[in-house]
Each structure stands twice: as structure tokens, then as C-alpha cells.
Amino acid sequence: MMIPTKAYAAYSAKEPLKSFSLERRNPQPTDVQLEILFCGVCHSDIHTARNEWGGGTQYPCVPGHEIVGRVTKVGASVKKFKEGDIAAVGCMVDSDRTCEHCKAGLEQFCESAATFTYNSNDPHTGGHTYGGYSQRIVVDQDFVLRLPGKLDPASSAPLLCAGITTYSPLRKWKVGKGQKVGVVGLGGLGHMALKFANAFGAEVTLFTTSPGKSEDAKRLGAHEVVVTKEEKALENQANRFDFIIDTVSAKHNINAYLGVLKRDGVLCLVGVPPEPIPVAAFNLIMPRRQLAGSLIGGIPETQEMLDFCAEHGITCDIEMIRIDQINEAYERMLKSDVKYRFVIDMASLG
Ligand code: NAP
Ligand code: ZN
Questions:
Q1: Cα separation of 184 and 271, whole Å?
Q2: Is 269 exposed, middle or buried (0-12, 13-18, 19+ CB in 10 A)?
Q3: 27 touches ligand 1 (CB under 6 Å)
Q4: pLDDT in tens, 186-241
Q5: Alpha-carbon distance 116 to 189, whole Å?
Q6: Near ion ligand 2, which residues have CB within 5 Å?
């Protein structure tokens, strides 16, 4: 038996999202069923809904991987959660759990391919997975996170992607005191990168194309703001930075950011522009700079990040929308007009 569930979906790359009805599986013994309260809106939702990443989108596509909800049912062998708990689901809902990456808590790199929250093959239904722009979701307990009671459910939802995607590389490259760190782009990911880099004790600079975001950037944790459209803005920063996290969603010149790194500095890409970006070899080989990338974060580290946020009072700066405002929210994000994450109040699905 399946559970009928209201949702919003893209029916093709070219159409706005609209109502859709899907079915969730009945909870199996290790499953948790959540009524979704809030779902954040990630730029990956737009890339996927519009099939911008190499033709891989399966339609109808129900995006959403920043999910906070209330547990309404648990399977017979679920120990971690009970009815009434507030819990969260991020970008993954399963993996093989046996490969070296899963054993290391890095399920996002699962050898058999992790089951992502949307647009992955769904072994339970034979179709594809549907994400959080929906009334409810059923997920194996191992991929459900505890939301600490201190965290506000709505403004914590974007921690499940924007939060972990920026927390994880800052931890991996041990960003902290005495280091000069750059964040490129102030959107959903960028605003969390500012908060985390600041909380870890680094000296933080925002690189932005939007002069109007300077004051907010300082409130969010930047010590300095560089408006990259100004002449010589990046040349003036040459050889100064230990680490840069680049969150930009569209084509841009990464050679300019390689140029501001010190010897052995790291430029870590987390943004995923649809087209390849050229790299000039001299920008890497001269002072031995490194170009790197990072994909979300594993389940143990996601829980660690949520606990860190609870301890340090960190949540996201959000603008709440109704589900019928989703297409307008996408257009605003494409104009870099988001402060700094849209979150859908799922009660608006009706
Ligand atoms: P977002 O909220 O739309 O923010 C992106 C920001 O990039 C914009 O606010 C803008 O900041 C800057 N930007 C946009 N277009 C630009 C351009 N043409 N040139 C220079 N800067 C530009 O997006 P998001 O949700 O943070 O996601 C950002 C990217 O990360 C997306 O590509 C998304 O798919 C990807 N992502 C990756 C992972 C991962 O695991 N690696 C996880 C989640 C998301 P300013 O106004 O400050 O310039
Ligand atoms: Zn995301």
C-alpha cells in the first residue's frame, strides 16, 4: 500500500513548477515517516528542475533536499526516533553502507551511488526519488538527522544542504585562527560559509558581484568585502589568501580567484556552474596552488554540523514563502536577489 502525497513538480525543463501527486511507500521496519514542515530552496533545485547538468533530470521532478519535519510514524525496529520528534533529511536518503566510503561516513561518494533525495533511482518504487517540495517523506532511519531542540525548525532547514556543504570543506581543510579565508558569492551557501568561517576563528573576506550586500556580509561574519566588479578589485588582493570557498552557480573566472591565493593555498569549488570553466596552468603551478572541490557532507558530519549550530546559536537567514511562490523565488535567485535562503512553509500545500 502506498501513501498519496501532495507535491509540487517540474514536468519539463521549460515549464514552471506546479501541483503534482505522488505516492510514498508505507514505512518498512527501519523507516521513519515525516510530515514535512519546512523545505529550503537550493540552487541545485533550479539546476535540476531545468535539466542544466548534462541531461540527467527525470520528470516529473520534485526538488527539495533541505527538509525539516515532524515524525508521524516509525517502523517496528526504529530506535532513534519516535512519533512527535522534529527531525531532518538532507541530500541523501540511502547508500550501500558497505563500501569504503560509506564505512568512512562519506555516503555521498558511495561506490554503488548514493540514493539522493530527488532525481535518483528509487530501489523501493522502481521509479525515481521525489524530494521535499511535498507533504511527507519516508526515509530509512540511518539517513534521518536529529534536529537539536535549540534550533528553530524553519531557519534550520537550509543547514541540511547549504550548511553541510560549506561546513564540510572548511573542516576538511582545517580552516581556523590565523588564516585568511575568502568566500565567493553571497547566496544560500555563501552566507553559511561566512557564518562558519567566522565561528571557526578565521579572518573572512566576501567576494561579491553585488555591492548592496556589503553590510549584510559584515553582519553575517565577513571582516572585509571585495566587490569584484570594481576595477583591479582582485589584482589588489593578490597572494593573500590561505583558503577560498567558491559558491558561484554560474560561469565566472576562477583564474582571478586562484591569483589571490598564497603559496599552497586552496580554491575549493562547491558551486556547480553548468559549463566547464577554463583554468590557466600558470595560476596553479607558480606558487603551487591547489584547485579542489567538495560535495555536501556525510551523515555523521551532518549531525556534527547540526550539533555545532545548536551549541553556537547558528541558523540560516531565511525568507519564508508559500509553495505557489516557488517559480518567483527561482527567478529572484537567478538575479542574486535572495536574503539568503528561501524556505517553503509546507503547510501552504493545503
Ligand atoms: P544562490 O543562493 O543562488 O547563490 C549563488 C550566488 O552566486 C549568488 O547569490 C551570487 O552572489 C553569485 N553569483 C550568481 N551568478 C553569478 C555570476 N554570473 N558571476 C558571479 N557570481 C554569481 O545559490 P546556492 O544555493 O548558494 O548554490 C550555489 C551553487 O552551489 C549552485 O551551483 C548549487 O548547485 C551548488 N551546490 C553545490 C553543492 C555541493 O555539494 N557542492 C551543494 C549545494 C549547492 P553575489 O551576489 O554575492 O555575487
Ligand atoms: Zn542543495
A1: 9
A2: buried
A3: no
A4: 999 999 999 999 999 999 999 999 999 999 999 999 999 999 999 999 999 999 99
A5: 19
A6: 42, 44, 161
